[in-house]
Amino acid sequence: MVYRLFLVVLFSLLSLIAQITALMAQPLVIHDVHVLSMENDRILDHQTIIVEDGIIRWVGDAEDAEMPLNAEVVRGNFYVMPGLSEMHAHIPQPGQGEQVMKDALALYLSQGITTIRGMLGHPAHLDLRDQAAAGEIDSPRIFTSGPSFSGGSVDSPEQARQMVRQQADAGYDLLKFHPGLTVEEFSAITDEANKLEIEFSGHISHDVGLERSLNARQGTIDHLDRYMEFLAGNPEDRDDPSIIYFGYDLAYDIEEGRIEEAAQMTEEAGVWNVPTHTLLHNVFNPDLSVEMMRNWPGMEYISESTLDNWSGYVRNLRASEDYNADKAHRFLDIRDSLLLAIHKAGAGLMLGADAPQIFNPPGFSAHRELSLLVEAGLTPYEALKTGTVNVARYLNETGSAGIIAVGARADLLFLDVNPLETIPFQNHIEGVVSAGVYYDREQLNLLLQEVKNHIE
């Protein structure tokens, strides 16, 4: 009886402590700042944002703000916008070590990336997703695919269906396609995925092609994969080249009149694109030397052996018989035209740099991707939408993410410049809020220093 009474009292005390802790959760007030809400392209001055429990509870004129008790108050000549999303991210595989995985997540976060979509998943990434959601690690919010569906992992339609069921049961957010699937395997995967209501995204296999993928309503097409083949009339006698080419070999065979047709088809299908422009520029653009790219911001957080591997890959490709500088320029120009046409047609674009890949450090490369979107013809505001508002639409979170508004997730990026006038803006980041947790510049520096220490 005494023991039972003790347990009752103990549980009552624990419940009371939990209630007090919840009541004492410290609000965050971002006071008297410039705000780009992303609801439109206007910068509003003298604004205050009040955050409680990871959610924006109030936003408005600073003079009207009612400061909550015990609040953490942040002041400064800051421009505050929603945090960015990297929608073709990679979390390193666990074979590289737990610290390497966590360091990549910290790099994303340090650059204002508050949501990532991991595009080559592993069971360990599900654990990281849970730790990030619980605030146990310094990380963006994580969505993740499972291990990819490819010619190497799929050997029959029946086995493909079983693989879909296994990944859905495991709790992955989406399925990832790599090349090498037959039409029959692709059909089996998409049919099973639709039954289980799990999305499929990524590459397009040679036998499947753009039109079949659009008709299947693939969630996203990444890298503008197989658009070049469509624009060249889907040549039947062409052998499928290396995965990184993405139609580079067809640059002189393009029928430019088909660009608008491809864009309209994409819009009608409701399929999103994640172009990863920076990856293709890093590999093919002759104006970007290896030496130049090795000195870009963020490379100091990449190991020397990885930088050497990236350097060797680019040098070897550009020294091959397949490479031609004029053809590379033509290829990249066509991608610009296609990207702009897809945007103008109203088909969705989302920010993604394919980090960490060839000269694309996590986080840093997303800012470079933004600058390439602007060079392709998007306005700065339209480019920023690809990492904010558009992502919220894709995730069915319109109104609750990707904007600064009451009820939205408190994922924020602090800059010392107007984001509509300064892209890229890596050197101008002054703070990040991730799910209501504020990292000032000093804390971000500490995160970066820890990552640097781990590779030295």
Features of this protein?
alpha/beta, disordered N terminus, three-stranded parallel beta sheet, TIM Barrel, 456 residues, 41% helix
Descriptive overview:
The protein is an alpha/beta fold. The protein has a single domain (90-403, 444-455), classed as TIM Barrel, CATH 3.20.20. It contains 16 helices and 15 strands. Strands 1, 2, 3, 4, 5, 13, 14 and 15 form an 8-stranded mixed sheet that branches. It has a 3-stranded parallel sheet with strand order 6-7-8. A two-stranded parallel sheet has the order 9-10. Strand 14 (429-434) and strand 15 (437-440) form a beta hairpin. Helix 4 runs parallel beside helix 5 and helix 8 crosses helix 12 (325-344). The chain starts with a helix and ends with a helix.
Question: What's the structural blueprint in terms of helices and strands?
Answer:
Blueprint: H1 2-24, E1 28-36, E2 43-52, E3 55-61, E4 72-75, E5 79-82, E6 84-89, H2 98-110, E7 113-118, H3 123-133, E8 141-144, H4 157-170, E9 174-177, H5 183-196, E10 199-202, H6 209-215, E11 220-222, H7 227-231, H8 258-269, E12 272-274, H9 277-284, H10 290-294, H11 304-319, H12 325-344, H13 364-376, H14 380-385, H15 389-394, E13 412-415, E14 429-434, E15 437-440, H16 441-455
Parallel strand pairs: 1-4, 1-5, 6-7, 7-8, 9-10, 11-12
Antiparallel strand pairs: 1-2, 2-3, 5-13, 13-14, 14-15
Helix pairs in contact: 2-16, 4-5, 8-12, 9-12
